[in-house]
User: Fold this.
Amino acid sequence: MTRDAGFTLVELLVTVAVLALLSVVLFAALRFGVRAWDGSEAHGTGMDELRVVQNLLRREIEQIYPAYLATDPVHPRVDFGGGEGAMDFLAPPPQAMLSAGRARIRLAGERDGRRVALVMHAQPELAAGNTGAWSEPLLRNLAAVRFSYYGAAAPGGQPVWQARWPVGTTIPQLVRLHVDFARGDSRVWPDLIVAPRIEADAGCVYDDATQACQGRR
Assistant:
C-alpha cells in the first residue's frame, strides 16, 4: 500500500510558523530602515539649516561697519555693542529686507517658550521709529546662546577673549558665537568664529575744530 503524496498537518503547521516568524523579522527590519531613513533625512535637513544660518551670520559679521558716533566729541566711540547674550552693529541688511544701504542689526538669544531662540533684528540705518523693521528667528529649540569677543580691552593691551566688548573706538578682531541645543536635539553647531573685515570708519573725515567727523554731531 503506497502513501498519498502531500503534506501532513504537522508539516503545514511548521511551515506556517516559519513564514510567520520570517514576516515578523522582515517587518521589523523594514520599520527600522524607515526610521533610520527618516532620522537621517531630518538630521541632514537640520544640518543644512545650520549651514544657511552660519553663512548668513558670517556675511553680516564680516561686514560690520565701525561708524564713529560723535555725540560726545571728548569720548568718541564706535557704533557697536557686544554683550554675552546679544550683539548690536551696523552692516548690510539681510537679503530678506530687500533694502539698500546699511542696517542696524541685533543678534540676540531670546526666550522662546521654555527654550531659547537666536533672533536677528534689522532696521534701515536712517529709518525713524520702527519704519522698515524686520525680525526673524534663525534658530529655535536652543538651551543657550553666548557671544564672546577677541581683542585688546585698551590700546596697546594684550588681546584676549572677553564676554563683553568694552565701549571704545575699535571693534573686536574676532567674534565667536557659541550655541547649545536643547537636550535630545541631534544638531551640532561648531563655534562660529568670524573676523570683521573693516577696521576703520572710512567715511569719517576728522575736523580739528569740532573734534568730530565732519558733518556729524
Observations:
- The helical segments are 9-62.
- The chain has one domain: 52-213.
- Residues 9-62 form the longest helix (54 residues).
